[in-house]
Amino acid sequence: MLRQLRDGLDLYNFLTVLEKNQEHCRDLFVIGHVEKVDSHYIVLSVAPEMSESGTLKQLKEKEILNFFQDFLLDIEDAAPEDKGKLSVPEVMQWLTGQSHRHLLLSERQRFRIVVRFDHNCLDRMPDHTICYPIVSACTKTITFPTAHLNNFEEFQQNLFDSVRCGSGFYRIFLNYSLAFSSSLTITIVMLTLLLSVLHHYCS
Ligand SMILES: [Zn+2]
Predict the structure, then answer these.
(1) Average pLDDT, the chain
(2) Which CATH architecture has domain 35-167?
(3) Where are the domains of the chain?
(4) What per-residue confidence (pLDDT) applies to 36?
């Protein structure tokens, strides 16, 4: 029966068309319309936490949001053979932990990517030259370090490095380090409290 189906499809050379356009023809054979994540889907979900209107900080934040949109459009329009480029689903995976669209309408309506801006990294660490966006895929939050995103080229390189290096085991290692440092901090705080209580009762 499959052979008959194949012969039937081949009548108008449809098999060749199928082989050459697998992506476009997949929806003809899959129940339901499976849509890939595109830049529009991400941009519509962005919920930025902006600084006060009219301030220099807000101007910088608007510029970074524009860079982000241009970055997504740029990788979306890249030629398929350009293997060095990222894809929009890869960026979605990095931001949210999933590379596909939400299946349920209620999930799509609730989906938000919170965007925050860190204006003070140089105040906290005056001697450093670069830092990268902090992404929490669980809470779907990204924090951009504004000091290192002064033009589109800087933004492009910064995000490219973040997605490429942050979506593999490096991220697990980073999370593990953060978890370890958090638990270490809690342990030190608890020991300090214990010592102060002992000191209070012994003195
Ligand atoms: Zn920094």
Answers:
(1) 79
(2) 2-Layer Sandwich (3.30)
(3) 1-34, 35-167, 176-203
(4) 85
